[in-house]
UniProtKB/TrEMBL annotation:
Species annotation: Stakelama marina
Coiled-coil features, chain-numbered ranges: none
Binding sites annotated in the UniProt record for GTP 1: 9-16, 56-60, 119-122
Domain of life: Bacteria
Name of the encoding gene: der
Subunit-structure text: Associates with the 50S ribosomal subunit.
Family statement drawn from the similarity comment of this UniProt entry: Belongs to the TRAFAC class TrmE-Era-EngA-EngB-Septin-like GTPase superfamily. EngA (Der) GTPase family.
Main function: GTPase that plays an essential role in the late steps of ribosome biogenesis.
Name assigned to this protein: GTPase Der
Domain EngA-type G: 3-163
């Protein structure tokens, strides 16, 4: 069986963009069960010859602000529990938010190894956010652009010990 990589992060950081890039045309299985699995997509990913199962956590499209953190937490923890490594995405352009810091706390409490990724890092606009992400205390982030396909080799190197 393939190793499992879970993509974690608050809404809009680029999780699904990264998922789509890594899975490509290979069919993503969408689970239509209620609850946490409803928001979860899985696919077989390829990254420079590495093969792994990848989990994209949630849309939260019609989520109301009061219930979002609880549902996100349940889903994040369920995905991370089953994973060999968690890819924790933050948005290098938007900078850190309180929700990023909260997710970092959940991840620190789990035993699953975490690879911190500063996405949307293409160009100058991402530079401050890459440095800011170091404040999460999870080491130097991988600077990635899921949309433009930059940082792939660094992501490969960071995942290699875990998959
Ligand atoms: P998710 O909610 O975390 O799944 O985020 P999405 O994958 O839906 O992306 C949210 C928005 O960020 C979309 O408009 C994407 O096009 C954009 N986005 C994703 N990756 C990048 C990136 O590397 N650079 C930039 N500039 N935008 C990105
Ligand atoms: Mg998404």
């Amino acid at each position: 069986t393939l190793p499992v990589v879970a993509i974690i992060g608050r809404p809009n950081v680029g999780k699904s963009t990264l998922f789509n890039r890594l899975v490509g045309k290979r069919l993503a299985l969408v689970d239509d069960q209620p609850g946490v699995t409803r928001d979860r997509r899985e696919g077989d990913a390829q990254l420079l010859g590495l093969e792994f199962r990848i989990i994209d956590t949630a849309g939260y499209e019609d989520e109301d602000a009061a219930t979002l953190p609880g549902r996100m937490r349940a889903q994040t923890e369920a995905a991370v529990r089953d994973a060999d490594v968690a890819l924790f995405l933050v948005d290098a352009r938007a900078g850190l938010t309180p929700l990023d810091e909260e997710i970092a706390r959940w991840l620190r409490a789990s035993e699953t190894p975490v690879v911190l990724v500063a996405n949307k890092a293409e160009g100058r606009a991402g530079e401050a956010g890459i440095i800011e992400a170091m404040a999460l205390g999870m080491g130097e982030p991988i600077a990635l652009s899921a949309e433009h396909g930059e940082g792939t080799a660094d992501l490969f190197e960071a995942l290699l010990p875990h998959v």
